[in-house]
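Chapter review: from sequence to fold.
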Amino acid sequence: MKVLLSIKPEYVEKIFSGEKRYEYRKAIFKKNIDTIVVYSTMPEGLIVGEFKIDTILYNSPEIIWNETKEYAGVSNSFFKKYFANRLEGYAIKIINPVRYEKPIDPKLEFESFHAPQSFCYIS
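The token string follows.
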């Protein structure tokens, strides 16, 4: 199964360049997901590619940072702000990122498209 994940354009670039190999989340999927389809948020507003999930780490933010910081693609201060006041979090380990040759404009493909706040399940 797949999810459509909203990611800011600056982090999308880092994912497809290989600089960012972990995507951090405060909440995670309830279903068994193997592929993440990447929606690059505004001002881009396009579905630009996808990647497979290797593993999903679940732990305290401090432990997650220590295990993932080399390929975090974000600064430690950004990471700490993102997980502020959280006792646990998730790090999705990214493998096989593939950028689409032609990005998809979801508003042209799906009449009632609304960008997901975090993610939405897709088939």
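Two observations follow directly from the output. The longest helix spans residues 9-17. The domain at 2-122 is CATH 2.30.130.30 (Archaeosine Trna-guanine Transglycosylase; Chain: A, domain 4).
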